[in-house]
Amino acid sequence: RIYHLSATGLLQQISVDHCTDPTRPSPLTRAVGADATIVLDDCVVDIKQGDQLLVCSDGLSGVVNDQTLSTILQQNLPAQQSVQALVNQALLQQSRDNITAIVLMAQ
């Protein structure tokens, strides 16, 4: 997933979940190299100074709710410390999947 946190504190998911079947958590619905062509999703987001983007795997977004993601990101820690806080939260909530997170800060 990709989330956008505006400098005003509004958190929005800007990526699209391709599988919403609760009986099949985390199925791989797209992969580079699986087909001859690649289908990409795109969107336009107006990024302003102070905004943040969070790119994460479902090991994070599947166990940490949006309010908690927002609260951690709004602490305005350096990106690496935000990532560590997010991963730590997922571990506290006993994520059973790989946890990947990247935080980008607009300056």
Q: TL;DR?
A:
The chain is α+β, with helices and mostly antiparallel strands and 107 residues long.
Helices and strands, with pairings:
Layout: E1 2-5, E2 11-13, E3 52-56, H1 58-61, H2 66-73, H3 79-92, E4 101-105
Antiparallel strand pairs: 1-2, 1-3, 3-4
Tell me about this structure.
With 107 residues, the protein is of the alpha+beta class. 24% of the residues lie in helices and 16% in strands. The protein contains three helices and four strands; from the N terminus they run E-E-E-H-H-H-E. A four-stranded antiparallel β-sheet has the order 2-1-3-4. Strand 1 and strand 2 form a beta hairpin. The two termini are 22 Å apart. The mean pLDDT is 88.
Strand count, sense and barrel status of the largest sheet are: 4 strands, antiparallel
Shape: globular
Q: DSSP helix count? A: 3
Q: What is the CA-atom radius of gyration, in angstroms?
A: 15 Å
Mean pLDDT: 88
Q: Would you tell me the structural class of the helices and strands?
A: alpha+beta
| Residue runs with pLDDT of under 50 for 5 or more positions | none
Helices and strands, in N-to-C order? EEEHHHE
Total E-strand runs: 4
Strand content: 15-25%
End-to-end C-alpha gap = 22 Å
Strand order of the largest sheet: 2-1-3-4
Helix content: 10-25%
List keywords for this structure.
107 residues; single chain; 4-stranded antiparallel sheet; 16% strand; globular; alpha+beta
